[in-house]
Automatic annotation (TrEMBL):
Keyword Transcription regulation on entry: no
Any one GO MF annotation of this record: translation elongation factor activity
UniProt protein name: Elongation factor P
Record-annotated Elongation factor P C-terminal domain positions: 130-185
Tree of life domain: Bacteria
Similarity annotation: Belongs to the elongation factor P family.
Organism of this sequence: Pelagihabitans pacificus
Length: 188
């Protein structure tokens, strides 16, 4: 058992008969009254995000987890296949376990978190950013770089991303996987 002083980003806890990962937290010590910890929890089974406040010193049940590197192989409908980079064992996960399945390119290495008690996969952590090629977008016009106007573009994985007007088909762009937004154009 842990207490609220052990709360940190990425900690997995058992709360309301489910396993949650702490994605944000803030220790608050008001001038009047007891201290508390405001958290944002993400269910590793359903993906739902929930705000919760724990009073200071509250006991929380932490869950031991282990992370392993896996390489994304392919998708078969809503089933995604991954291979362990150490022992080459393969596992399959449902699309709901992934945060941004549309940005996952074959061969990409991800980190999968496992519950050490039953060896069940809990969540998939994508790299912070991915580089993908634009397969379709309206043609860019020379001189359209001064404004923050955007247009939709389809990338090689099939996902749609809003990009600046100067991006053309064939350009490689860096995409933030947490928000799914354009970061920058990548030069070869």
């Amino acid at each position: 058992m842990a207490t609220t002083s052990d709360i940190r980003k990425g900690l997995c806890i058992r709360h309301n008969n489910d396993i949650y990962k702490i994605i944000e937290f803030l220790h608050v010590k008001p001038g009047k009254g007891p201290a508390f910890v405001r958290t944002k929890l993400k269910s590793v089974t359903s993906g739902k995000v929930l705000d919760n406040t724990f009073s200071a010193g509250h006991k929380i049940e932490d869950v031991r987890v282990e992370t392993r590197s896996y390489q994304y192989l392919y998708a078969d409908g809503e089933t995604y296949h991954f291979m362990n980079t150490d022992d080459y064992n393969q596992i399959t996960l449902q699309e709901s376990a992934l945060d941004a399945p549309g940005l996952l390119k074959e061969g990409e290495v991800v980190t999968i978190m496992f519950n050490t008690e039953d060896n069940m996969p809990l969540s998939v952590d994508m790299p912070a950013s991915v580089v993908l090629e634009v397969t379709y977008t309206e043609p860019g016009v020379k001189g359209n770089t001064a404004t923050n106007a955007t247009k939709p573009a389809k990338v090689e994985t099939g996902a749609e991303v809003n990009v600046p007007l100067f991006i053309n088909e064939g350009d490689k762009i860096k995409i933030d996987t947490s928000s799914g937004s354009y970061m920058e154009r990548v030069k070869e």
